[in-house]
Amino acid sequence: MLDALCEALPDADIYTLIHQPGTQSPAIESRRIFTSFLQHIPGVHTRYRHLLPLMPQAIESLRLQGHYDLVLSSSHCVAKGLRAPEGVPHLSYVHAPMRYMWDLFDDYFGPGRARLPVRAAAHAVRPWLRRWDRTSAARVDRFVANSHHVAGKLQRFWGREATVVHPPVDLERFTRLPLEGGGRGGYFLWLGAFAPYKRLDIALEAFRELGVPLWVVGTGQEAARLTSGAPPPNIRFLGNVSDDALPSLYRDARALIFTPEEDFGITPLEAQATGRPVIAFAKGGALETVNSRTGLFFSEQTPASLSEAVRRFDSWEASFSPREARSQAERFSRQSFQQAMLREVESLLSLSTKSTTRATAV
């Protein structure tokens, strides 16, 4: 998404907590990039999650190195806390509030989710981080949320209204494949990070009971727990797969299994772009990206509810249209996102007496 913003705002400089040169797209790497004091901590690129208590101070310590007409922050944690210079409007695009300190705290730090010292530390810093989250939100002039689901959270947690601009999806590599012949692999597909809130455990338990093929792509912090022991023969763990291999994995699957309550969720749109349906938990961003003609929903985040949806899928599948699924995904194009964000930028700048010359992106 930052890549799309950089393309839409060609003169923008970038301010970020840390940056590992060479890891981003040319559109990003070609910019002037300024980092915080966290950049100088040895091993920061592999240990940054442990530095969460320092991140508010780090973002507030950044000083803008030039004269700007607008600050545009892209925030899922602390970026919206950047202190804009006096008189410079701040537009913040929010992917999510600090979810692990608000509604998903127990998913990350509940019993069995983390080691006891980590859980104790999280409980200790949670009140302070939530206060900072609300206070820093008050400094932003206008919010844009990546989904209506997130906009509702901003209202609940920060007391702030937000317009909605859905994020862009890199559709081109998924729409190159023909729609004909999809689903012939005979397996269902689960794809994502093995994070607690992703609820891969629901899919594993449901498909153990169903006995139908499930292929799992990804890895993460819960890998050891979720992959311990020999999996049943109908479940395959593929680990991480290359970007080149992913479109074919989607296309050959009968359907994508989407178990988390996501703030938005990119994978359902990638699956639909290849012409495949989605079986999704009926809450969060999936309600904005999947409809009754491109997928099925299960109402409870339990193995039993998912199993029931998979059984219904056998009869529903005959009415599914791959072309309609692709059309649904194409609504979330890069160009649509860029045009909508430029309208938000221009709207906020119109309230300022300055002309549009440069912008910052965080």
From TrEMBL:
Q: Where is the signal peptide?
A: none
Residues in a coiled coil are none
Q: Where is the Glycosyltransferase subfamily 4-like N-terminal domain?
A: 4-173
Which branch of life, at top level? Bacteria
**By what name is this protein known?**
Glycosyltransferase involved in cell wall bisynthesis
Q: Which organism is it from?
A: Myxococcus fulvus
InterPro entries linked to this entry: Glyco_trans_4-like_N, Glycosyltransferase_grp1
